[in-house]
UniProtKB/TrEMBL annotation:
InterPro entries: UDP_glucos_trans, UDP_glycos_trans_CS. Gene3D superfamilies: Glycogen Phosphorylase B (3.40.50.2000). Belongs to the UDP-glycosyltransferase family. This is Glycosyltransferase. It is an enzyme of class 2 (transferase). Its EC number is 2.4.1.-. Pfam families: UDPGT (PF00201). The lineage of its organism: Eukaryota, Viridiplantae, Streptophyta, Embryophyta, Tracheophyta. GO terms for molecular function: quercetin 3-O-glucosyltransferase activity; quercetin 7-O-glucosyltransferase activity. It comes from Solanum commersonii. Keywords: Glycosyltransferase, Transferase.
Length: 451
């Protein structure tokens, strides 16, 4: 029988991009004999398409058991109700587990759900906030929270200097909420991630020291920060957890065989992988520009278009698409794809998991950020780590086909792309070193070796 050192209850925000990092961190803790229970919503559990992970999962309610986030109508309505109903159902779960062999000692929560700290305090539990964005983005939200900077986007080229940043950033580089979906109310929720942090024991960030040295050093003076990234399955990085090859919990069904069979027939570094993640809603006009930009680049491509986005694809594009040119799928096993030797570049919406995965697997990028933290991530990809180019939007906010074509060619074919490709290889090594024995993730543990 395994004797556990502690029992940690994990509470991710129930979106793919937030679940993946927390699940990976859970597996690392589990390998150190910490018992893990992941608490997620009833709706998500009912709708999971793939669930192969060994960690135990329990259900709580977000107040929308039948329709989840979509039933709520808006993000703000969703998080508001989640707080009301979630506080009660989480308390009930902790009470239930209190009667088990191994009661809960610690809660790790996504700071989108900052109310969890109050529940943890009610039960006298240790708590840790787990930020799934990088430290740069957290730092920006921190300064908005403190009222030091205003984040409302402007049309001009005004530059903002943020403490901890080594370079000034422009309005187009900050997390943006340009009313695309709900406007400034979302910003309030984002900034509220910092509202309870004075009460937590640790702050965990899915990043690694070398990636954001100055910002991490700066924020460490304010908060008990531990960088614990990149949180991707061990077999893609340090290979210390032998059965850890995939996240093991997916909201979408990956078309694994179709993707890998097709990639297996493509030459090394010849394929562009394109994905906008689990959530982004791309405007129809942008979809059309992207489609023709891909085709005109004359590179082979593997493009993930979620089924809800598919109707926006131009009809003649699909009709003309042959397996000689490209493959469009509704979801793929992204890590296996990025690792595949045929992949030469990743055109990405710059979700933080996608960037960390590309860094960890040494794939150079074309950054096409959509919203939230993605513009900041894109800024770092292009200007700080120099592992990609950024496809510029026109004044209407659309990236035109010619720009897309040029960016793809630049990374995949041209001399200028050589440096970007070399840098990508360099960062891959650094990511691996960070999580390996003696790497910066471990060096950041305290003198007792406690995470
Ligand atoms: N992903 C995947 N298959 C796909 C597209 C995405 O497995 O076809 C995974 C990807 O590996 C990443 C997550 O979904 O772990 C997306 O997270 P990210 O932060 O990049 O973007 P979000 O979906 O949160 O916008």
């Amino acid at each position: 029988m395994t004797t556990h050192k502690a029992h940690c209850l994990m509470l991710p925000y129930p979106f793919q991009g937030h679940i993946n990092p927390m699940l990976q961190f859970s597996k690392r803790l589990q390998s150190k004999r910490v018992k893990i229970t992941i608490a997620t919503t009833k709706y998500l559990l009912k709708n999971m398409k793939e669930l192969t992970t060994s960690v135990s999962i329990e259900a709580i309610s977000d107040g929308f058991d039948d329709g989840g986030r979509d039933q709520a109508g808006s993000f703000v309505a969703y998080v508001t109700r989640f707080k009301e109903v979630g506080s009660d159902t989480l308390s009930q779960l902790i009470q239930k587990l209190a009667n088990s062999e191994c009661p809960v000692n610690c809660i790790v929560y996504d700071p989108f759900l900052s109310w969890v700290v109050e529940v943890a305090r009610k039960f006298g539990l240790v708590s840790a906030a787990f930020f799934t964005q990088n430290c740069a983005v957290d730092n920006i939200y921190y300064h908005v929270h403190k009222g030091v900077i205003k984040l409302l986007p402007t049309q001009n080229d005004e530059k903002i200097l943020i403490p901890g940043f080594s370079c000034p950033i422009e309005a187009s580089d900050v997390p943006n909420y340009v009313m695309k979906i709900e406007g400034p109310k979302i910003l309030e929720v984002m900034v509220n991630q910092f509202s309870n942090l004075d009460k937590v024991d640790w702050i965990l960030i899915n990043s690694f020291y070398e990636l954001e040295k100055e910002i991490i050093d700066w924020m460490s003076k304010l908060y008990p920060i531990k960088t614990i990234g990149p949180t991707i399955p061990s077999m893609y990085l340090d290979k210390r957890l032998h059965d850890d090859k995939e996240y093991g919990l997916s909201i979408f069904k990956p078309m694994t065989n179709e993707c890998l069979n097709w990639l297996n027939h493509q030459p090394i570094n010849s394929v562009l992988y394109v994905s906008f993640g689990s959530f982004a809603i791309v405007e129809a006009e942008q979809m059309e520009e992207l489609a023709w930009g891909l085709k005109n680049s004359n590179n082979k491509f593997l493009w993930v278009v979620r089924s809800t986005e598919e109707p926006k694809l131009p009809k003649d594009f699909l009709e003309e698409l042959t397996s000689e040119k490209g493959l469009v799928v509704s979801w793929c096993p992204q890590l296996q794809v990025l690792e595949h030797e045929s992949i030469g570049c990743f055109l990405t919406h710059c979700g933080w998991n996608s960037i960390l995965e590309a860094i960890s697997l040494g794939v150079p990028m074309v950054a096409m950020p959509q919203w939230t933290d993605q513009p900041t991530n894109a800024k770092f990809v292009k200007d700080v780590w120099e592992i990609g180019v950024r496809a510029k939007q026109d004044e209407k906010g659309i990236v035109r086909r010619e720009v897309i074509e040029e960016c793809i060619k630049l990374v995949m074919e041209e001399e200028k792309g050589k440096l970007i490709r070399e840098n990508a290889k360099k960062w891959k090594e650094m990511a691996r070193n960070a999580v390996d024995e003696g790497g910066s993730v471990r060096a950041k543990h305290d003198e007792k070796g406690i995470v």
